Amino acid sequence: MNNLTIKKTAVLGAGIMGTQIAALLANSGLQVLLLDLPFGEPGSLNRNTLVKQGIETVKKMNPPAFFLPELFSRIQIGNFEDDLGKLQDKDWILEAVVEKIEIKRNLLRKIETVRKKESIISTNTSGIPISDISKDFSKEFQSHFLGSHFFNPPRYLKLLELIPGPDTLPEVVQFFKNFAVKRLGKGVITAKDTPGFIANRIGTFAVCFILKTMMEYELTVEEVDEITGSVMGRPKSATFRTLDLVGLDTFAHVAQNLRDALPHDEMRDYFKIPEFVQRLIEKNRLGEKTKEGFYKKIEIQNGMTEIYSMDLKTLEYKPRRAAQFPSLQLAKTQDTLENKIKFLALGKDKASDFFWKITTALVDYAVKRIPEITDDSADIDQSMKWGFGWKIGPFELWDMLANIKGTPAVQDKLPTKKEKETKDDFIFLSLIKQNKTSLIKQNTGASLIHLGDGILNLEFHSKMNTIGEDVLTMMDEALKTLNQYNGLVIGNQGENFCIGANLMLILMLAEEQEWDDLEEAVDRFQKINQKIKYAAKPIVSAPFGRTLGGGCEIVLHTSKSAAAAETYIGLVEIGAGLVPAGGGLKEMISRFSQKFSSLPLIEPFKPMQQIFETIGFAKVSGSALEGKKLGYLRETDPIAVNSDFLLSEAKKTCLNMIEEGYISLEPQPVLVYGKQLYSNFLVGINLLKEGGKITEYEVYLAKKLAAILAGGDFTSPQWIPESHLLALEKETFLSLCGEKKTQERMQYLLKHGKPLRN
Fold first, then answer.
1. CATH number of the domain encompassing residue 288
2. Which of 293, 362, 387, 665 is least surrounded by Cβ atoms within 10 Å, i.e. has the fewest?
């Protein structure tokens, strides 16, 4: 078993799931062989048409399956007839063909004849018993065979259910689990070989119960989605929008398979598809793939469209009407998920009653699945969070409700959660903060924590991790305290690293013309970022998720970054009618001047134009790899595929810098190109204006941005101090805050969550 390794991989089946899994492997730096059925006669140039079509489909997906478009070059293509022999050197072969057992078994029989000994074979089945698939295969094959159930889309949904067969070696399971966690970035749950495994069993029941119960309560499609969405800690797509995305036919197939496979399940009848779903399937209203399901985009006038919802009684589409339940309206106003759920639970209306009924039934069903599908209730909670995007699992929800409205009898049946294994390379800030000696300082916006080994951690926990007074105060405290420690990590374990400055506060100060206060705030943020850049000890940022505006500027100033693979980073201030003012533009110019200062004068214009377009169009990276291409992250910055290891990676990076003898930076001048570069920018701006691609006000904003990136009115290239650029940033930012159209942009962005093109 010491020979277990995974370097060369193959995916068999180039459908939507197989190609996305191949993309996931390519994202992880692996070479992949992707095979499917042959097309045409042997020797034909079109033999691999099916695989090519699969890759082209996945390349166009939104959100993207690849970290970078060019990563598809890591995928080699072929077919089951001509290229099966290429499997003989593969370490892991994943079968992802159609969900029919005989097709899977026939293909695996062929694999058995060519695979090398000790290669791992897995099937991506979502519910066919693993023991049935591998029955009668050789002992050595069965000892290396298991189920590897990825969730769609595999890049974004973290869950991977591992299902050992009856003869799978424990060391194979453990090796593959470690590989999937660390190399693929997956959250791995080991499931028992039962129908639907864990997540689909619980999740499908939850949906089926909602569909049946809503008819009893005479609720509309949109009312159910408002109750079962973000207010309950579930995705915004809630119930019916999720079904449209999954496909009604796919959902019906999964539910029917579970009903057929579960003759002794006490809730088996609930897996029967309701009549209204069956009627929609018959009418080919399958959801997103047929452009109509429970929702449909309707053209109302002059090319304008609106999303209509379905009336389940008539199956006709009608304008959506917001739910009017008091408990739901109150719940929506709450800041925390716990308070949202409490207000929903404490109501005296139909929404509250419906919530209690579906929640109690779900928890009761989950309780009775132990030990059938797993021995640990925590596995059920985690599966629903990783696989279905829930913020809390059914048992965690019940814990939250325990003291709200009495305790139903099901509470007494809840199993005791086992202590989950802890790993040295996991850092849990919530646990560390429980130790009073580790929590150094704290306010409502941020905390300063000792991670051990002399490394501090600055954690943001303001609303959406925005940068306001409390965060700035704690950043100052962190820099002062750093003198007594060896290094600092800036990172947290929320939903996002930081979405930027507190825009509401900026708008309020601008509308009230509190210019001195606004200037003081900008000046303070600039000075803190400069202190971060020139600190005597290494400071490492740990960006992940949305890292925008001021959050991006903090990252740009740190000694190094350890970024999560899923990092969406960018300077997006233009969308709010502003320019970056925390030193972000200064840092982008500084990085440029370090890289291109030796080039002839004309040559730097092209890369500077790229910087101008990146910031002018508020480009946000789709991954950490793209963040490096855009210049927000350094080429040498490490990337953590699994965000669970991010803070550990950041701490390790900090310790390595100390061990290598960290030498702090000394202030250096920055090379700017003045009027010649500004004139170059104007050409591009005018072309965009003439092409109708930007508005008059966006022309105005673009010129303001161009003036800063040019560095001023110099007639020839100049080396200037950073303070000159910081002053330009601040002056431009403050002047834009006074513009009516900028204030309109800020108001719109705060209200609608998207930019206004005024």
1. 1.10.1040.50
2. 665
Residue 735 located in a structural domain: no
The model's pTM is 0.93
Query: Are 588 and 545 part of one and the same domain?
Result: yes
Which residue type sits at 701?
Answer: L
- Contact present, 390 and 382 (Cβ < 8 Å): no
| Number of other residues whose CB lies within 10 A of the CB of residue 284 | 11
Per this entry, what is the length of the chain? 758
Shared domain for 100 and 243, answered yes or no, is no
205 and 320 in a single domain? The answer is: yes
Rounded to whole angstroms, what are the CA distances from 203 to 83, 372, 582, 648?
38, 16, 45, 32
Which range of residues forms the domain containing residue 597?
429-605+618-666
Report if residue 13 sits inside a domain.
Answer: yes
Measured CA angle at 180 (ends 176, 186), to 5 deg: 145
Domain boundary among 355, 389, 413: 413
| Chain centroid offset of residue 401 CA | 28
Residues 161 and 234 in one domain: no
SS3 of 652-716: HHHHHHHHCCCCCCCCCCEEECHHHHHHHHHHHHHHHHHCCCCCHHHHHHHHHHHHHHHCCCCCC
CATH code of 65's domain? 3.40.50.720
* Pairing label, strands 159-164, 145-150: antiparallel
| Nearest Cα to Cα of residue 701 among 612, 577, 613, 610 | 577
Q: Side chain identity at 12, as an amino acid letter? A: L
In a domain, 754, yes or no: no
What single DSSP character describes residue 86? Answer: G
Strand 75-79 relative to strand 31-36: parallel, antiparallel, unpaired?
parallel
Token pair listed for 94: 């994943």
Cβ–Cβ < 8 Å for 207, 225: no
Give phi and psi for 517, each to the nearest 5.
Answer: -65, -40
529 and 633 share one domain = yes
The whole-angstrom separation of Cα 342 and Cα 357 is: 15
- Residue range 270-307, pLDDT digits in tens: 999 999 999 999 999 999 999 999 999 998 877 788 99
Separation CA 196–CA 268 (nearest Å): 13
Domain end: 156, 190, 224, which one?
A: 190
Residues 395 and 478 in one domain: no
d(CA 414, CA 418): 12
Overall number of domains in the chain? 3
DSSP single-letter state for residue 732: H
Q: Kindly state the tokens that stand for 635.
A: 């080429």
Chain-centroid distance of CA 538 in Å reads 28
Q: CA-to-CA distance for 80 and 528, rounded, in angstroms?
A: 60
- SS3 readout for 581-603: CCCHHHHHHHHHHHHHCCCCCCC
pLDDT digits (tens, 9 = 90+) for 542-571: 999 999 999 999 999 999 999 999 999 999
Contact 556, 588 (CB under 8 A): yes
- Rg of the chain, C-alpha, whole Å: 28
Note whether 364 and 474 are same-domain residues. Answer: no
- Inform me whether the pLDDT recorded for 415 exceeds 90: no
Unique residue bearing structure tokens 């006709």: 316
Smallest CA-to-CA distance from 274 within 308, 239, 307 is with 239
- Rounded to 5 degrees, φ, ψ at 473 are -60, -45
CATH of the domain at 433: 3.90.226.10
Does residue 491 contact residue 459 with C-beta atoms inside 8 Å? yes
Kindly indicate the confidence band of residue 225, based on its pLDDT and cuts at 50, 70 and 90.
very high
Q: What is the mean pLDDT of the chain?
A: 94
Angle at 331 between CA 329 and CA 334, to 5 degrees: 120
d(CA 606, CA 742): 29
Q: Are residues 522 and 440 in the same domain?
A: yes
Contact 82, 76 (CB under 8 A): no
713 vs 185, 241, 289, 670, 674, CA distance in Å?
49, 54, 55, 15, 5
Residue 706 lies in a domain: no
